[in-house]
Amino acid sequence: MVESVQWNLSGSAVRDVWRFVPVEADMASLTQRSSGLVQRRTEASRNAADKERPAGQEDHEPRRGDEQEDDDSGDSKETRLTLMEEVLLLGLKDREGYTSFWNDCISSGLRGCMLIELALRGRLQLEACGMRRKSLLARKVICKSDAPTGDVLLDEALKHIKDTQPPETVQSWIELLSGETWNPLKLHYQLRNVRERLAKNLVEKGVLTTEKQNFLLFDMTTHPLTNNNIKQRLIKKVQEAVLDRWVNDAQRMDKRLLALIFLAHSSDVLENAFAPLLDEQYDLAMKRVRQLLELEPEGESIKTNANELLWAVVAAFTK
Predict the structure, then answer these.
(1) Residues near 299 by Cβ (< 8 Å), separated by ≥ 6?
(2) To 10 degrees, what angle do helices 83-91 and 228-242 make?
(3) 3-state SS record for the chain
(4) What percent of the chain has pLDDT over 70?
(5) Model's pTM, two decimal places?
(6) Rounded distance between C-alpha atoms, residue 69 and residue 22, angstroms
(7) Could you tell me if 98 and 222 are in contact, meaning their C-beta atoms sit under 8 angstroms apart?
(8) Residues 6+ positions from 273 with CB-CB distance below 8 Å
(9) Angstrom distance (rounded) from CA 129 to CA 127
(10) Stretch 162-179: mean pLDDT, rounded?
(11) Cβ neighbours around 314 below 10 Å, total
(12) Among 144, 142, 145, which Cα is nearest to 126's?
């Protein structure tokens, strides 16, 4: 009897010890994650250390890198962000938890994100050209499917577009959804507290947290960054799109990533992703962004597999 008790205790102790081993391993892997171009100044020293490492130890580092790539491309709901959330995350100050008070572009930029997000999800499209071809900005936005998206803001915008007759253009919808309209009868189309609602979505996904800050005469709810890995992956993705993975052809780029670059620029938050770059990399990145901005949306929209509504939103911000 005594021996059996001792055996059970030792067995449970072994299980307890074994249960904590993966946690310590995960913590070690998290602290050793690199953030790509964002941490470029330490990359040289890391490469030098790799050269000095014995050949027998080289197999472990690529395996850790492979696991990181799997995490980056995973379908975890906690890390899957919409275009609106990505643009807002680029604009948020990490510690302060709010966007710049001087940024008056992000409001309309977020509405453009909604239209493109709905188009990429197969909910919206532009009306057919017909016999007489219309420009992108003259064509109306049509509801292709009213199936719920699972995102409250997107579903609210989709309902407005579906119920509106006659249909409106892309430019009109950006103004209506942001409340920048002179028609008092259309003020009900405005989506209110968009930034706050997006920030709360990011809180639920574990990216941000919620705090209260006192600004002399009033208190303001802020959302400081709490998961730096997700933001660093986002910044790395934007940087690599115009540096290491540049394809010099907008049609060959991922549509969501292309839209992110355009709308981050229109929202005046794109430079936040390029700020950590060295001068040479920054100049090259901005040069390639200017190449994208100089594209003619009308011509790009008629190319094979192009998303017309995406280019209509681009035309609305670059006209």
Answers:
(1) none
(2) 100
(3) CHHHHHHHHHHHHHHHHHHHHHHHHHHHHHHCCCCHHHHHHHHHHHHHHHHHCCHHHCCHHHHHHHHHHHHHCCCCCCCCCCHHHHHHHHHCCCCCCCCCCCCCCHHHHHHHHHHHHHHHCCCEEECCCCCCCCCHHHCEEEECCCCCCCCHHHHHHHHHHHHCCCCCEHHHHHHHHHCCCCCHHHHHHCCCCHHHHHHHHHHHCCCECCEEEEECCEEEEECCECCHHHHHHHHHHHHHHHCCCCCCCHHHCCHHHHHHHHHHHHCCCHHHHHCCCCHHHHHHHHHHHHHHHCCCHHHHHCCCCCCHHHHHHHHHHHC
(4) 75
(5) 0.75
(6) 19
(7) yes
(8) 90, 234, 235, 238, 239, 264
(9) 6
(10) 95
(11) 27
(12) 142
End-to-end CA distance of the chain: 85
Provide the token pair at 67.
Answer: 């696991």
Say how far apart CA 32 and CA 133 lie, in whole Å.
Answer: 55
| Chain segment 241-280, per-residue pLDDT in tens | 999 999 999 999 999 999 999 999 999 999 999 999 999 9
Residue type, 105: C
Task: Note the pLDDT tens digit of each residue in 69-115.
Answer: 333 333 444 468 999 999 999 999 999 999 988 898 999 999 999 99
Residue 163 · residue 170 · CB < 8 Å: no
Contacts of 77 (CB under 8 A, 6+ apart): 205
With both helix axes pointing from N to C terminus, report the angle between 279-293 and 255-266 in degrees, rounded to the nearest 10.
Answer: 100
Indicate if the pLDDT at residue 68 is higher than 90: no
